[in-house]
Amino acid sequence: NTVMPAQMTDAHRRFLQILMSNGIIEGLEARKLHQHCCETDKVYYAHDKLDDFISTINSHLQPLFMQIRKGMSEEDGRAHYALVSLAETEVTKMASDYTEIELELFRKTMDLIILSENGFASSTDILNLADQLKTKKMKKKEAEQVLKVFVEDKWLSEKNGEYTLHTRCIIEMEQYILSNYQDVARKCNICHSLAIQSQVCESCGIGMHLPCVRKYFRAQTEPRCPKCNEFWSCDMP
């Protein structure tokens, strides 16, 4: 017997529209939005049923090759929800929003971030790439503006002149990154999601998100690698 997807109500549609206009929302916001949508449309609301509510939306999005996915902020470990296109998991999905030269700058920035040791790239290093682009050279002033747009559109995050991939970018591009950076991209040993900002075991090479490191070692008497049991030599984040 095929299970028919649960009926998509106005509450589901309202939730989806707001998520689409934001691109990504934080877990707490998603819970508030779930309550607001149910109460506005006078449908049954249960505070612990957000994931079921989202599953119903996802069953209707399936034919459109879209999906609401849950991910984690690498900075503080908080849950986030993003709307993801399953049809194009690559940087090409950004092609409708950005020019070829902007996309090239984004790819090169992504290279710097993923190949770095700490998951960050400095604005200096990124801006130095601007006049080496194949599409055409970009002035540093232009490049600064483009980076600003990538931050506004939640593809990059910036802190004190250091750039990393935004949670939205990690959720949307996880598969693309894992298949295009096979030698360096790694999943967190604890939550099994892609880890860009991570600590790495010096003995066996597994990686862990900083929030996962904090959470995992909180319960341990001394920090030992969850895989090889060697002493964890990185500083506690």
Task: Write up what this structure looks like.
With 237 residues, this protein is an alpha+beta fold. The chain has 3 domains: 10-64, no CATH class; 91-173, Winged helix-like DNA-binding domain superfamily/Winged helix DNA-binding domain (Arc Repressor Mutant, subunit A, Orthogonal Bundle), CATH 1.10.10.10; 185-236, 2-Layer Sandwich (Herpes Virus-1). The chain has helices at 10-22, 27-40, 50-61, 100-115, 123-129, 140-152, 167-180, 210-218; strands spanning 24-26, 66-72, 79-85, 121-122, 156-159, 162-165, 186-187, 194-195, 198-200, 207-209. A 3-stranded antiparallel β-sheet has the order 1-3-2. Strands 4-6-5 form a 3-stranded antiparallel β-sheet. Helix 1 packs antiparallel against helix 2.
In short:
The chain has helices at 10-22, 27-40, 50-61, 100-115, 123-129, 140-152, 167-180, 210-218; strands at 24-26, 66-72, 79-85, 121-122, 156-159, 162-165, 186-187, 194-195, 198-200, 207-209.
- Per DSSP E runs of 2 or more residues, the count of β-strands stands at 10
The proportion of strand residues reads: 15-25%
Order of secondary-structure elements = HEHHEEHEHHEEHEEEEH
The CATH architecture category of the largest domain equals Orthogonal Bundle
Give the helix/strand class. Answer: alpha+beta
- Give the neighbour order of strands across the main sheet: 1-3-2
List the defining traits of the structure above:
Non-structural maintenance of chromosomes element 1 homolog, three-stranded antiparallel beta sheet, 237 residues, Herpes Virus-1, alpha+beta, single chain, chromosome, 3 domains
